[in-house]
């Protein structure tokens, strides 16, 4: 069995006539963190969204190539997209809790998927909040509104909400960019914990963050994946001159 949780092969992506991704090939290793870096507009978020077919929601988009997930192409016509998004969860740049209680935010996914048993829901909520390193801070106010939490807590709540449906892969689109340094450090520590159980792909503008949290890094430039390698290699001894120029701050 390969150690790739997902494997992207010759992926092209179009917004109408505009080609935003060119022949991307990238293996996403199980229980590793893969960071995607590159200047604004290079296609990082677009790429991230191809991994759970979130781009399908945007009219006029088109994909060529394949993304194997446990060896099955997620773009095959017989794939159940709702089931796919359950297995490949997502956390966004701005924490986006629902205007509901902390408990109901985390129970949302399991309820949508048909779980009604109160005991089981409570168990999942506790486990997910623990998984997101938030439980001790909120255990006495699970019925309070999620909107009363700090930004960093809200982001960990969104991570707990993603964990509650037991995904296998977690996609994070700049999960700490709206947070202060203390809250950012908590999210980074959490990512290191989560990779024991999940395969993680993170888009980040911060090269320091990529260097701190990831095992492998892909550098994107204008829709191309210029270089993909172990994070140490990318930051210490990149092969491509354009990678070197970017990480040394010569452009972007
Ligand atoms: N919904 C859309 N419709 C048309 N073009 C889009 C859409 N979303 C993104 N694009 C274009 O696709 C290209 C890649 O955008 P994308 O958001 O993936 O880049 P990014 O690397 O994530 O940028 P940033 O770091 O600024 O978030 C850009 O040229 C962008 O203008």
UniProtKB/TrEMBL annotation:
GO terms for biological process: phosphate ion transmembrane transport. It is a peripheral membrane protein. It is found in: Cell inner membrane. It comes from the Bacteria. PROSITE patterns: ABC_TRANSPORTER_1 (PS00211), ABC_TRANSPORTER_2 (PS50893). Keywords: ATP-binding, Cell membrane, Membrane, Nucleotide-binding, Phosphate transport, Translocase, Transport. Residues 6-247 form the ABC transporter domain. One of its GO terms (molecular function) is ATP binding. Pfam families: ABC_tran (PF00005). The keyword Translocase applies. The keyword Membrane applies. SMART domains: AAA (SM00382). GO terms for cellular component: plasma membrane. Signal peptide: none annotated. Part of the ABC transporter complex PstSACB involved in phosphate import. Responsible for energy coupling to the transport system. NCBIfam families: 3a0107s01c2. This is Phosphate ABC transporter ATP-binding protein, PhoT family (TC 3.A.1.7.1). It comes from Halanaerobium salsuginis. The lineage of its organism: Bacteria, Bacillati, Bacillota, Clostridia, Halanaerobiales.
């Amino acid at each position: 069995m390969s150690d790739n949780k997902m494997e992207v092969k010759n992926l092209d992506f179009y917004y109408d006539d505009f080609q935003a991704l060119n022949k991307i090939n990238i293996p996403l290793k199980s229980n590793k963190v893969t960071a995607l870096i590159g200047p604004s507009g290079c296609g990082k978020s677009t790429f991230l969204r191809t991994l759970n077919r979130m781009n399908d929601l945007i009219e006029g988009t088109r994909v060529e190539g394949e993304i194997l997930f446990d060896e099955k192409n997620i773009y095959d016509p017989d794939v159940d997209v709702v089931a796919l998004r359950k297995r490949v969860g997502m956390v966004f740049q701005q924490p986006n809790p629902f205007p509901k209680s902390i408990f109901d935010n985390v129970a949302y996914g399991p309820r949508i998927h048909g779980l009604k048993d109160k005991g089981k829901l409570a168990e999942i909520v506790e486990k997910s909040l623990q998984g997101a390193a938030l439980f001790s801070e909120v255990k006495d106010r699970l019925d309070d509104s999620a909107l009363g939490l700090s930004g960093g807590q809200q982001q960990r709540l969104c991570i707990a909400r993603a964990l509650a449906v037991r995904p296998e892969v977690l996609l994070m689109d700049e999960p700490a960019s709206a947070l202060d340094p203390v809250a950012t450090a908590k999210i980074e520590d959490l990512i290191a914990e989560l990779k024991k159980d999940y395969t993680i792909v993170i888009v980040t503008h911060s090269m320091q963050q990529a260097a701190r949290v990831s095992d492998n890094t892909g550098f994107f430039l204008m829709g191309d994946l210029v270089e993909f390698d172990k994070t140490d290699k990318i930051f210490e001894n990149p092969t491509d001159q354009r990678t070197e120029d970017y990480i040394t701050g010569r452009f972007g």
